[in-house]
Amino acid sequence: AQSVTQPDIHITVSEGASLELRCNYSYGATPYLFWYVQSPGQGLQLLLKYFSGDTLVQGIKGFEAEFKRSQSSFNLRKPSVHWSDAAEYFCAVGSPFNDYKLSFGAGTTVTVRA
Amino acid sequence: KAGVTQTPRYLIKTRGQQVTLSCSPISGHRSVSWYQQTPGQGLQFLFEYFSETQRNKGNFPGRFSGRQFSNSRSEMNVSTLELGDSALYLCASSDGTSDYNEQFFGPGTRLTVL
Prior knowledge:
The structure holds two protein chains of two kinds.
Chain A: E1 3-5, E2 10-14, E3 19-21, E4 24-26, E5 32-38, E6 44-50, E7 56-58, E8 64-68, E9 73-78, E10 87-94, E11 103-104, E12 108-113
Parallel strand pairs in A: 2-12
Antiparallel strand pairs in A: 1-4, 3-9, 5-6, 5-10, 7-8, 8-9, 10-11, 10-12
Chain B: E1 5-7, E2 10-13, E3 19-24, E4 31-38, E5 42-50, E6 53-57, E7 64-68, E8 74-78, E9 87-94, E10 104-105, E11 109-113
Parallel strand pairs in B: 2-11
Antiparallel strand pairs in B: 1-3, 3-8, 4-5, 4-9, 5-6, 7-8, 9-10, 9-11
């Protein structure tokens, strides 16, 4: 069964500082990996996705993530955080072969201080 | 294109009642998935419909059911509501035919059971 672990429940970062959110997955084959962001009272917005190919993927809002098969990780990064990046971030894994069931991590809440 | 819409946005019910939530996918999308989000359990997959057929199902009791109409709109029904059913219910749509499951989420329906 596929599963996702986000080790950090809450991260506080200063505006302008870099941000890295950790994600580890468990899946027997090459997974499809996603990062979503959820602002208070909102649904989920896709930041970026990895299916295959280049292990460094670029997303929206200046985010990027790197897939490391040896570490079963898919960490999300942003070089310089803006106050509007305060939100909850979810890593998710999906399986190919027509399985549309995403498994989500517990989420990491990011607080941005001025 | 218009995004995924969910109605109603907020709902208050009492224990024992039943509730129906509605989801309209992005135009042209034929797959609709439902997720339950709670502080304790996080995001959990309920079920997925494609072309009016349930294609995937999560681990929820039979009180949770759904259906999809010929125009791809979907409804989710919860019967005999329990306090623990209080949650944000998210709907996501995708084209359903690709071999990857990029999903677009609606804003959710906040259900409160008293």
